[in-house]
Amino acid sequence: MIRLSKSRFVAGVQCHKQLWWKVHEPAAEELQVGKVLQDLFDQGVIVGQLAQGEFPGGVLIDLPHNAVEERVEATRAALASPAPAVFEASFFADRVFVAVDVLLKTPTGHTLIEVKSSTQIKDGHLADAAVQTWVLRRSGLTVDGVEIMHLNKEYRHPGHGSLLVREDVTEGVEALQADIPAMVAEQLAMLDGPVPDRKIGAHCFEPRECPFFDRCWPDDPDRIMTLYSVGPKKAVAYIEQGINRIGDLPVGAKLSETARRQLRSLKEDRLIVEPTLAKALEPFDGPLGYLDFETVARAVPVWDGLAPWGQSTAQFSFHEELPDGTVRHVGWLAEGPDDPRRELAIAMIEATRNARRIVTYSAFEKTRISELQRLVPELHDPLEELLGKLLDLLPVVRNNVYHPGFLGSFSLKYILTPLVPSLSYQDLVIVDGMEASVEIARLLFVAHKIPVAERDRLRQDLLAYCERDTLATVELMRTLKGLSHG
Ligand code: SF4
Questions:
Q1: Which partner from 77, 151, 221, 385 sits 20 to 30 angstroms from 44, CA to CA?
Q2: In sequence order, what DSSP letters do the residues of 18-47 get, joined into one string?
Q3: 414 Cα–ligand 1 center, Å
């Protein structure tokens, strides 16, 4: 017998087809949990444990999730006990199983508390709490309050304010109650049948991007989703008008200069270089330095001044062109769980001291250096000097160059192969910034759980990844200068 859970119900609210695949193809490639997603789950577990700490005396239903009957029985016993709260309180009614993060006993009944590791209530959270409320009531419980407990975006480590906040969502949840029985019945009936039809649309992105996106959306390099800066809403609006490909756009469509250049590039199937490129590159007269950062972000911040999920620099790579035409490289990566930012700032100031101009690809490094200024005030002046040397290459590419292989993106990973085919990330173990961030966190905070040989390898992989980012920018600059000369 197929049953629903709160996460299945929320998936079904987003799209029946998505839910059907999740239930009938649990081993699907799209559902495999990679390092980044696993880290997100792990962060959620930490937040959940902290939330439980807010309710002293609470009892945890600590049984396997598939032991439904035992969990329900244990929950009944815990509710009958003097414990003020039950964690993972489990209920099963009408083929729906739910485990409530925190079920708090009150003088008039119970308050259901759903814990989220986000810093605000998001779409989907209400449906999640609503189906739980419905199952609890079907199980005979009085639920007279519903809350979402989430991370407080105002919190700053090491403890100014409360890390978790509770928001009352009873009204919103009550408003959904009348619809829940039909929604549950529809989902269950759908799951008992063949894969349903569902047209693509805005729901493929909301409340989160569907894992089966590539199954449903046309696999066409010219697809409207790759129009520069189109965004899901506009893309869906185009599709609803029958505009599935960029080439279908009407002649008078209101588009940005960059999107117009993209259209021309696709139509002529060639690299477009504007005559304005040479002028845009004038400030980049060499020799140049090239700087790139990698960061970590933890749900529960660990270093001073950080908010939940606040990003913090933990690694840099710097390439410097020398007057004799050679290139020198400095790589730096934090070690251990202590705040590395002061040490990083000192090493970076030293590494970049002789460079007259320093290229970054995006404004990300500028933002992080400004943060370092606030955090390490005694280094304010040398960091200010460094800020004054920065030049962002991304707008130069965006405003002057387009190749069909960019697929509507100006991220370094997308533009590198079309512009610098000799250089890629394919020979590296770590190939994107999200993965690097998660791996840095693993290296810094749980190194004791990693065998020494793997730890050394991971360190080298991270250094190699960040180094490739700045080397890519060095090569990109060479290519752009070559293109600007005609
Ligand atoms: S891509 Fe869209 S239509 Fe396809 S399963 Fe996902 S949400 Fe449903």
A1: 77
A2: HHHHHHH-TT-GGG---HHHHHHHHHHHHH
A3: 25
pLDDT, one tens digit per residue, over 25-70 is 999 999 999 999 999 999 999 999 999 999 999 999 999 988 999 9
Residues with CB under 6 A from ligand 1: 14-15, 17-18, 198, 200, 203-204, 210, 212-213, 216
Q: Which residue has the tokens 């700087």?
A: 291
Fold adopted by 280-484: Nucleotidyltransferase; domain 5 (3.30.420)
Pocket test of ligand 1: the residue of 14, 16, 18, 209 to mutate, having most ligand atoms within 8 Å of its CB, is 18
- Domain locations along the chain: 4-191, 217-255, 280-484
Q: What are phi and psi of 434, to 5 degrees?
A: -65, -45
| Nearby residues of 457 by Cβ (< 8 Å), 6 or more positions away | none
How confident is the model over 371-408, as pLDDT tens digits? 999 999 999 999 999 999 999 999 999 999 999 999 99
Q: 202-230 as b/e, with b when 16 or more CB fall inside 10 Å? A: ebbbbeeebbbeeebbeeeebbbbbbbeb
